[in-house]
Amino acid sequence: MASWNSLGLEITYEAFGWIAFFSWSFSFYPQVILNYKRKSVVGLNFDFLVLNMTKHSSYLVYNAAMFFSPVIKRQYHEKYGFGEMIPVAANDVAFSVHAVALTAFTLFQVLIYERGNQKVSKTCIGITVIVWLYAVVCVFLAWPNHSWLWLISVFNTIQVIMTAIKYIPQAFMNFQRKSTVGWSIGNILLDLLGGMLNFGQMGVQSIDQETLVNFYGNFGKTLLSLEVVLFDILFIFQHYVLYPVKNED
After folding, report:
1. Is the torsion defined by CA of 197, 199, 202, 203 positive or negative?
2. Which residues contact 141 (CB under 8 A, 6 or more apart)?
């Protein structure tokens, strides 16, 4: 079983991971608070929320299974080498649990607050149904041969795809409205910090182990960090350059 070569890098890895956890976790609260203060969710795209729930649920399945299952850990080591470290940390699991809970709460706010004429699109519903049907089929395919590592990699792929497309409805809505009112920039700034630290955490592990296996062994985490950074930069540009808000808390 692999271990750390440098105590300093191990401490840095843990620090990056938990700061990223708190940053990403706190990123949910500005939107929740904004909804509460306005008693309205107008300006928050509902497709984003539904796709986000699918994304975080899939990521929770992957992180929890990889972190807690001895069988999956063994299959991972058999594929990538017994000298390699598991690419999921405790902060990854903690974040996923928190993310699912807060996204569910935000969806609850959609039900109780003013939402104007906004609704979930048929396209979003269709994508969500197809994704979960595909996941169920993969469960039955993995069951006979106990291909659990392959199965959770499917969920990891789902979360990567959901991350890539979940921001598009919100970005397009901001473009259509020529405004970011109702969409919390605090969410984006904290999300960006978490994405950068998450990527940095993987880099620290690679330096210590002198290998890039943790990048392609957990490609979902790698792509997640890159996607988050790119989309957050787009939202920051929309908020501060294209559609600046003069009066905002």
Report:
1. negative
2. 147
Q: Which amino acid is at 76?
A: Y
The full DSSP string for 216-233 is HHTHHHHHHHHHHHHHHH
Both tokens assigned to 62: 């992957």
- Mean pLDDT, the chain, whole residue set: 89
pTM summary value: 0.82
Encode burial over 134-165: b for 16+ CB neighbours within 10 A, e otherwise: ebeebeeebeeeeebbebbbbbbbbbbbbbbe
pLDDT tens for residues 210-229? 777 767 666 767 777 788 88
Distance, CA of 208 to CA of 65 (rounded, Å) = 25
- DSSP-derived secondary structure letter, 115: -
